[in-house]
Amino acid sequence: MKGLEFVFLAAGSVLGAFLRYKITESHLIFNTLPLNVLIVNVIGAFILGAFIVVSQQWNLDGRYSLFAAVGFCGSLTTMSSFALDSSNLLENNQYGTLAANILANVGLSIGALIGGKSLMSAIISN
Predict the structure, then answer these.
(1) If you average pLDDT over residues 83-94, what whole number do you get?
(2) CA separation (Å) from 67 to 42, 75, 82, 118?
(3) Distance in angstroms (rounded) separating the CA atoms of residues 33 and 96
(4) Hey, which of 8, 36, 65, 119 would disulfide with 24, CB 3.0 to 4.6 Å?
(5) pLDDT of 31-61, one tens digit each?
(6) Structural contact between residues 114 and 43, judged by C-beta atoms closer than 8 angstroms
């Protein structure tokens, strides 16, 4: 990795981690479903979907992928916190909430990625 590539990766990572911290610093819970992790995962997936379309349409340099996709979205979204929340729900025998957490994080994140791609495709094609 070249120096400039590292700068792009680091800048995106710092911004993504900061935004995740700000979104998750106060716990949002709906019944027992942790919403903070869900929010960052869905937002990150949407941004990644939109970025993919922009990157392909504008043939962006790979450094922008390091910044946006790997750095920013990678630091914003959090599989480890999702796994921890799910594990805690399992340990507390909250099986319905566990199922809702898994379905919401996976389903809404995939939906958000597709939505981001679709929206950006519609914007760019006009």
Answers:
(1) 96
(2) 19, 10, 23, 22
(3) 10
(4) 36
(5) 888 899 999 999 999 999 999 999 999 999 9
(6) no
Give Cβ neighbours of residue 65 (< 8 Å, ≥ 6 apart): 51, 55
Determine the structural domain holding residue 68 and report its residue range.
3-125
Q: Which two tokens stand for residue 18?
A: 């900061």
Tokens of 121: 């495709």
Number of domains in the chain: 1
Cα atoms found within 13 Å of the Cα of residue 20, Cβ hemisphere only: 24
Angle made by CA atoms 22, 26, 44, in degrees to the nearest 5: 45
